[in-house]
Amino acid sequence: MGKSTYKFKDHVSSEMVDAELTKLLFDSGVRSNLVVLFASSLIIAVSWTSLSHDLLLAWAIIIDSIAIARLFLIFRFRRCQPLGEDRSRVFKHYYLGLTTAIALSWMVIVFYGMGAENRDVRIFFLLVVISFLGTAV
Q1: Do 64 and 93 touch, CB atoms closer than 8 A?
Q2: 67-96 pLDDT tens trace
Q3: 3-state class of 33 per DSSP?
Q4: Which of 19, 35, 61, 133 has CB atoms 3.0–4.6 Å from 88's, for a disulfide?
Q5: What are the distances in angstroms from CA 49 to CA 44, 61, 123, 129?
């Protein structure tokens, strides 16, 4: 076995690693928000005849507003580069808070969708839950 030729030139702190991971999170964030906007439209189209229109519209406004807020946060993060480690942590916490709100919004609509009278809509929402479980793994 040969000796390692890698030498540490700088001290890397956990805050620096966290800041770099936050940058990676924001680099891929636009696509995930576009998926949320598309998927919410799909949910409305599929369940329009089976669920309350008021419920669907309220849910769509909430989840789309949160996704748009995340997009604005991403663009602000990119505009403020480079950031210090503390400021990067603040952006990450805001983004994770908004992501939690989106997850709760999905949970609400799936809960109502599973109670729909139309069997096909219930199957659709069951598939939505299965896809969520698949992406979580």
Answers
A1: no
A2: 999 999 999 888 887 666 677 778 888 999
A3: helix
A4: 19
A5: 9, 18, 15, 20
The single residue listed with the structure tokens 């991403």 is: 74
**Taking the model in full, what pTM does it have?**
0.78
Euclidean distance between CA atoms 135 and 1, whole angstroms = 40
Token pair 């995340």 is found at: 70
Helix (H) or strand (E) holding 5: none
DSSP 80: T
Could you tell me the sign of the dihedral formed by the alpha carbons of 73, 75, 78, 81, in that order? negative
Close Cβ partners of 80 (under 8 Å, ≥ 6 residues apart): 87
What's the CA gap between 77 and 113, in Å, rounded? 35
| Total H helices, total E strands in the chain | 5, 0
